[in-house]
TrEMBL record:
Domain of life the protein comes from: Bacteria
Lineage: Bacteria, Pseudomonadati, Bacteroidota, Flavobacteriia, Flavobacteriales
Single GO MF descriptor: L-rhamnose mutarotase activity
NCBIfam families referenced in this protein's UniProt entry, alphabetically: YiiL_rotase
PANTHER family in the cross-refs: L-RHAMNOSE MUTAROTASE
Key words, A-Z: Carbohydrate metabolism, Cytoplasm, Isomerase, Rhamnose metabolism
Originating organism: Arenibacter arenosicollis
Keyword Isomerase recorded: yes
Pfam families for the chain: rhaM
Gene name of this polypeptide: rhaM
Protein name (Swiss-Prot/TrEMBL): L-rhamnose mutarotase
Chain coiled-coil ranges: none
EC number: 5.1.3.32
Keyword Coiled coil included in the entry's annotation: no
Length: 104
């Protein structure tokens, strides 16, 4: 299992909306995530910086990357684009984080 951590950024006045849109997350998107080997997925929020910290356990990086090609993922990105920093294709601006410590 691969442990993946990454960060994104929500606009300062949009954390309530961001939280609302994730609770509950779309059933179809949850199914795509699970079908692509994503487990134990959490997103945390730092109120001082408006940074979102994501953590997920993956079966493979290849399966994770293929999620971006699904219609439901593209639809989700469009839905989320008004409330967070995104790339031109509406995907969230995201930076992978390097693991420096792990205690199993």
């Amino acid at each position: 299992m691969i442990r993946k951590a990454f960060k994104m950024k929500v606009y300062p006045d949009q954390i309530e909306e961001y939280t609302k849109r994730h609770n509950p997350i779309w059933t179809e998107l949850e199914e795509v995530l699970k079908n692509h080997g994503v487990h134990n997925y959490s997103i945390f929020f730092d109120s001082e910086t408006h940074v979102l910290f994501g953590y997920a356990e993956l079966e493979s990086e290849e399966k994770w990357k293929r999620i971006a090609d699904t219609e439901i993922c593209k639809k989700w990105w469009t839905h989320m684009a008004p409330i967070m920093e995104t790339n031109e294709d509406n995907s969230p601006m995201s930076k992978d984080l390097k693991e420096v410590f792990h205690m199993p």
